[in-house]
Amino acid sequence: MIVVMQEGATEAQIREVEGALEQWGYEIHPIYGVERTVIAAVGKPTMDEGTVVEQVESLPAVDRTMLILKPYRFASREYRPEKSTVQVRDVIIGDDRFVMMAGPCTVESEEQLMTTARAVKAAGAHVLRGGAFKPSTSPYSFQGMGEEGLKLLAQARAETGLPVITEVMHVKNIDMVCQYADILQIGTRNMQNYDLLIEVGKLKRPVMLKRGMSAKIEEWLQAAEYILKGGNDQLMLCERGVRTSETYTRNTLDLSAVLAVRELSHLPVIVDPSQGTGRASMVPAMCRAAAAVGADGLLVEVHPNPEKALKDGAQSITIQSFQALMPELGAVVSAVGKSL
Ligand code: PEP
Ligand code: MN
Q: What are the two backbone dihedrals, phi and then psi, of residue 200, each rounded to the nearest 5 degrees?
């Protein structure tokens, strides 16, 4: 960490900062300039660096501090230079295979789920998605089938062999969701639900952490750090669009986030163009774009009858559209050196 003193800081004020830094376990390397003093503090402090920053900045005559290390360690590329992978049954996420996760936004009935599961499997999907616990902006909209929905997902897995991804919204439901799901999805609204992150960090189960709709990349990686720090390294991220001034699309799908994560972290990144655009007409092209930019896979909402969907129908593509998408995607995926 670097501490920049204010112009005119007295010797006593500088000593006070140096003494405090040493007390917190740092070795100090001061540069006494003509106008200002800069103190480089190296080593591992005895308390969390974020707290040190707050305390140093409250000392008299401190102008500002700069952290040299990233505020996330286990998620960083420095910690692990090579990409990490997540294994879900026999599907590996994060290597040369581009992974397609598809299914309805929400499990609505046995017929709806089984029809979709069979169709996406036949078209080449690797993972079945479907929400049983649904976070809803409106308390009056469909909240999901709960455990009945989870049972249907398990039934669809038994028939098709597809592993299942579904959202867990609350700490109290983790055990139940784990009984049925292969991947736990943490939704955008829960990216900063730290209690939930800490609990899934204690599991060995794969987790997909969605980006908060207004989260900066650094905040997203810090949320990931909660899970990794607990010991669960089976983690992937999912870019699902962020809030901007635009309202024509439901969110603004930030494909540059895939590149940012690639630069900063080793974690696999999935893209969700369904929540990302809110418009079925845009989903196939954004799927191809995500593959082109180097995402590790996609999460796509598919519904046998989108106009009748209880949730997110406007952004759900039809089974026919999904069937048409797969070969188009295959071409893009192979152009970037991967396979579908
Ligand atoms: C979803 O995948 O249906 C969903 C609710 O996602 P998000 O948390 O990104 O809104
Ligand atoms: Mn949805």
A: -70, -20
Q: How far apart are CA 274 and CA 93, in angstroms?
A: 20
Mutate to test the pocket of ligand 1, among 193, 271, 272 (most ligand atoms within 8 A of CB): 272
In this structure, which ligand is nearest to the CA of 136?
A: 1
* Amino acid found at 118: R
Highest mean pLDDT among 25-39, 70-84, 237-251: 237-251
CA of 186 to the centre of ligand 1 (A): 9
Query: Global pTM?
Result: 0.91
Closest atom, ligand 1, to C-alpha of 188:
8
Query: CA torsion, points 8, 12, 14, 18, in degrees to nearest 10?
Result: 180
Q: For residue 19, what are its two tokens?
A: 């003494």
Q: How far is the CA of 187 from the centre of ligand 1 (A)?
A: 5
Complete domains list, the chain, with CATH: 2-66 (3.30.70.1140), 86-335 (3.20.20.70)
What number is the average pLDDT over the span 270-274?
Answer: 98
Please give the distance, rounded to the nearest whole angstrom, from the Cα atom of residue 111 to the centre of ligand 2.
19
Residue 161: phi, psi to the nearest 5? 80, 0
